[in-house]
Design brief:
alpha+beta; 15-stranded antiparallel β-sheet; eight-stranded antiparallel β-sheet; 5 helices; 22% helix; 45% strand
């Protein structure tokens, strides 16, 4: 019996020492990372660091984190972040986001993202690069706003990103949001009719994306991996009488210019043109041309309210068949 007691004491001491050492290394690693970013010209500040989680997990709370990358112009600020990992393998990380809004800034706009305390679970591969093997972000009601204006919102959010087993640079993405909706400010800017539904009936995306390098810790420290191929299995948005579906594959060059084909199916497509025209995105003359062209294409399917076309991307131009309809967007992650 005495031996069992001493064995228990010995194991408890070893476990405590393991936890204390791991907790210290976790805190020291965070401090060093912030120091390295400041040496590169970043803003990388925290109001304080606090360790916890004994005895079965490592937990680190960052109070008031503020990060800004001068090269990309992307900035992040939050009231706190909680990083949690099990003692047996710190590479299974959970990132608990704050209950209050997160401030995000890009060269295009400043926004506030309220995720209501969502949690991101990350599985990282062992090694100095800490490659991302899988990520799942799940949360309840969320909202994206600019100033006091809500732009987008939904009752839940689910984002999954899983690395392909046979290709470290390729990932499967699944995105869904229940009761996804435009905020009042965005509805007003797009001049959405008042009798249109408040929320989408369905909003989901499934895609496989190959990047120029795997996602790892250097994606934050140095440069974001850039997409080189997007295989869109399905992107669907159903909003009232509108039903839009896209699928296809695009190859993206170093400048972010896509080449490939996308199939587009749209029911009640004229209402999409109505929205674009009301928002000032489609001048009246172009609206008439688009209506005439798409009416002819819809007539081929036998249903004038249903559109089934293929968009061709080549040379920086988007075309329907051989008819150019505009410049292709550049696909670049800042």
């Amino acid at each position: 019996m005495r031996r069992l007691i001493w064995l228990g004491i010995f194991l408890a001491v070893i476990w405590t020492a393991w936890w204390a050492g791991g907790s210290w290394m976790m805190q020291r690693g965070a401090q060093q990372w912030l120091q390295d970013r400041r040496a590169e010209g970043w803003q990388a500040d925290v109001a304080g660091l606090r360790s916890g989680g004994f005895p079965n997990r490592f937990a680190l709370t960052l109070r008031g984190p503020a990060l800004a990358d001068p090269e990309t112009g992307v900035a992040f600020r939050a009231s706190d972040l909680n990083i949690i990992a099990p003692v047996y393998w710190p590479g299974y990380v959970s990132l608990r986001l704050p209950d209050d809004p997160i401030s995000l800034a890009t060269p295009l706009m400043k926004t506030q993202l309220d995720l209501g305390g969502a949690t991101a679970d990350l599985r990282l591969r062992p090694g100095p690069r800490l490659e991302l093997e899988a990520m799942a972000l799940r949360g309840g009601a969320w909202a994206l706003g600019a100033g006091a204006k809500t732009l987008l919102a939904a009752n839940d959010l689910e984002i999954a990103m899983v690395q392909h087993a046979d290709a470290a640079q390729s990932y499967r993405f699944d995105l869904g949001a229940d009761q996804f909706r435009l905020g009042p400010a965005l509805r007003q800017a797009l001049r959405v009719p008042g009798d249109w539904p408040v929320q989408f009936d369905r909003f989901a995306v499934q895609a496989d994306v190959r990047f120029d390098q795997p996602w790892d810790r250097f994606a934050i420290e140095r440069r974001r991996p850039q997409p080189r191929q997007i295989s869109l299995g399905l992107a669907q948005a159903t909003w009232g009488d509108l039903n839009l579906r896209l699928a296809g594959t695009l190859t993206i060059d170093a400048a972010g210019i896509p080449t490939g084909k996308l199939s587009v199916q749209a029911q009640n497509w004229r209402e999409i043109l109505d929205l674009a025209q009301a928002a000032g995105l489609l001048p009246g003359a172009l609206r008439r041309q688009a209506d005439d062209s798409l009416s002819a294409l819809a007539g081929l399917s036998g249903n004038p309210n249903s559109l089934d076309i293929q968009l061709n991307f080549a040379g920086g131009i988007v075309a329907v068949g051989f008819i150019p309809i505009g410049s292709a967007p550049r696909i670049v992650i800042r």
